[in-house]
Write a structure and sequence with these properties.
- The protein has 17 helices and twelve strands.
- It has helices at 2-8, 12-44, 51-95, 99-102, 107-148, 150-179, 181-197, 199-204, 206-259, 264-310, 321-324, 376-383, 406-410, 434-443, 464-478, 494-510, 542-550; strands at 332-343, 349-361, 365-369, 391-396, 399-400, 413-416, 452-453, 456-457, 482-486, 514-518, 530-535, 538-540.
- The strands form three sheets. Strands 6-9-10-3-11-12 form a six-stranded mixed sheet, with helices on both faces. A four-stranded antiparallel sheet has the order 2-1-4-5, covered by helices on one side. Strands 7-8 form a two-stranded antiparallel ribbon.
- β9 (482-486), α16 (494-510) and β10 (514-518) form a beta-alpha-beta unit.
- It is elongated and about 110 Å long.
Length: 551
């Protein structure tokens, strides 16, 4: 079971201590029942209740209460610790995943799995711990029944075993139904994201707005139908538990006395035990669907983790080649027969980029040209090491970049892609010179829009072009060796295009920086040392491009 798998990770001592405390709480509860029966028997016999019985009752109650409270606290501490470790482990695997692997996941799937599933277990765990205590109580109650009457124990245990088997079968059916809910919830989150991310488009197009709403309603209704069916199964499970309890009491009161003599002496004690077990039985059956949902949710978490493992390059161990790799003083980067394929779920190639033979020298300004779908963005991701090639390799000054040195190679680049992300703080630049940041804001014409203090910018509520300029400020503060820009100037006005091509790029070149930029601004192609044209994933020979331009 995934819940037990989670709890058993890490130190076993904590789990064992929590289990022991839970058993003590259950035992204390059973002792209370025994003492209550003893007190009732003395009352029937008109005998006074002795002081030691009252003291034992108070002690048993104190032990039960203390152990019960400690059990809940210990279990909650154990669970939160294990969940924190699980979330941290998942986040570590997400941040170390390869880009192409992470692109296979939807945001809704990741959010629903990492946040929603783990939060459900966290919120429902106190009820699960209470159910575990109830199971311990039921076990001790059966032991108490065995002490009262061996025959009664065999019959009660047999009836209970049959009831548990039927309960287990019904619970398995409910568990399978719950497994289908996760996928629909992820679809719902993805659909909801379209309303936020595509708000401008749907406000301008009523048909698109209505179509998106209809699709969302369809997903919600499908999810509702499944949850209603699960609710019916849950209600049937609760009804079964209550009916079983009354059936058990009926067997104790009406059936056993007809077959066994002398049974009447203990019947009221057995009935008292059965009545006391009503609460624990209800607690166990009520917690069963919660346990199933938590178990299924953790199953999705572990499945996500397994998929992340498949798309993660193992981190090199300390003291390996990665520790000594340093490409910052590079002179030349060479792509040697580098090729990459976009593949569908069956593995068939949908688009092939390469093979490419290309050399980029330090201090060079290289423009990548080509139409939409020509492979320019793919080329940037391959050059920067974000995509792993299917064949070929990257060499830095003749030395091949390996999985062990890949991260060191990636540290050469700072990039502004078309789908760039601005972080709320300058992570990794905590000790940046504030005056330098303010100077760059002024250089980018943002001094009246944005201020810099305490390691972060005052706002990101800017136009697309201004956000790109703010991203440029961050890139310049990083001071990497190679700058990669994917159509950075596309959203800038004429003046800032002039600044970008005729001031910023030459300034980077003078400081020995290398620039690789995707651009459609043919008026500025002369600003590059070299222009490379891509077409359907292949590099177009310069003479062919010149012929096409002439035509």
């Amino acid at each position: 079971m995934h819940v037990l798998r989670l709890l058993s990770t890490g130190s076993f001592d904590t789990f064992r201590r929590g289990f022991l405390i839970t058993c003590i709480a259950g035992l204390g509860n059973a002792v209370l029942i025994s003492l209550i029966n003893t007190g009732a028997e003395l009352a029937v016999m008109r005998r006074p209740v002795e002081l030691h019985l009252i003291v034992m009752y108070v002690l048993a109650f104190a032990i039960f209460y203390t152990a019960d409270r400690m059990s809940l606290r210990e279990a909650n501490r154990l669970l939160q610790s294990r969940l924190a470790e699980l979330r941290s482990r998942l986040l570590d695997k997400i941040r170390n995943s390869e880009l192409r692997s992470l692109e296979q996941f939807s945001r809704g799937e990741i959010y629903a799995t990492v946040v929603q599933e783990t939060n459900h277990l966290s919120q429902s765990f106190p009820l699960l711990v209470s159910a575990a205590q109830s199971l311990c109580l039921l076990a001790f109650c059966l032991a108490y029944v065995a002490i009262l009457s061996g025959v009664s124990f065999l019959i009660v245990a047999g009836v209970t075993a049959v009831g548990l088997l039927m309960f287990w079968i019904k619970r398995r059916q409910l568990s399978r139904a719950m497994a289908s809910v996760h996928e629909e919830e992820a679809k719902m989150l993805d659909s909801l994201g379209h309303f936020c991310e595509g708000f401008q488009e749907i406000r301008l197009n009523a048909d698109k707005n209505d179509g998106l709403q209809a699709a969302f309603v369809g997903i919600v209704e499908k999810l509702e139908d499944r949850l209603v069916a699960i609710g019916r199964s849950w209600a049937a499970l609760l009804l079964f538990s209550n009916a079983f309890l009354y059936f058990l009491v009926g067997v104790v009161v009406f059936v056993l006395p007809a077959f066994f003599s002398g049974y009447t002496d203990v019947i009221y004690k057995l009935v008292a035990v059965a009545i006391f077990c009503a609460g624990p039985v209800l607690g166990v059956t009520s917690a069963a669907p919660l346990f199933d949902k938590a178990n299924v949710g953790l199953g999705h978490v572990y499945a996500l983790e397994k998929r992340l493992d498949a798309g993660t390059i193992a981190e090199p161990a300390a003291g390996t080649e990665a520790d000594t790799a340093d490409f910052h003083a590079f002179r030349e980067i060479a792509l040697d027969q580098l090729a990459f394929n976009y593949r569908n779920e069956t593995g068939a190639s949908l688009f092939r980029a390469g093979p490419w033979d290309l050399k980029i020298a330090r201090g060079e300004i290289v423009f990548l040209l080509g139409g939409n779908g020509s492979g320019k963005s793919t080329a940037l991701k391959l050059i920067t090491g974000l995509y792993q090639p299917d064949s070929g390799c990257i060499r830095v000054d003749g030395v091949e970049v390996t999985p062990k040195t890949l991260q060191a190679y990636r540290e050469l680049f700072t990039c502004i892609f078309t789908d760039f992300h601005l972080f709320e703080r300058l992570y990794g630049l905590e000790h940046v010179d504030a005056e330098q940041a303010v100077s760059l804001l002024r250089y980018m014409g943002l001094e009246e829009k944005v201020t810099f203090a305490d390691g972060k910018f005052s706002t990101q509520d800017l136009s697309t072009g201004q956000r790109k300029r703010l991203a440029m400020v961050v890139a310049l503060l990083e001071q990497r060796e190679i700058y990669v820009f994917d159509e950075w100037a596309a959203d800038q006005d004429v003046s800032f295009r002039e600044v970008f091509y005729k001031v910023l790029l030459p300034a980077l070149k003078r400081t020995g920086k290398t620039v690789i930029a995707v651009t459609h601004d043919d008026r500025y192609w002369h600003c590059a040392d070299r222009c490379i044209t891509l077409d359907v994933g292949a590099i177009v020979p310069p003479d062919a491009f010149a012929t096409a331009e002439a035509v």
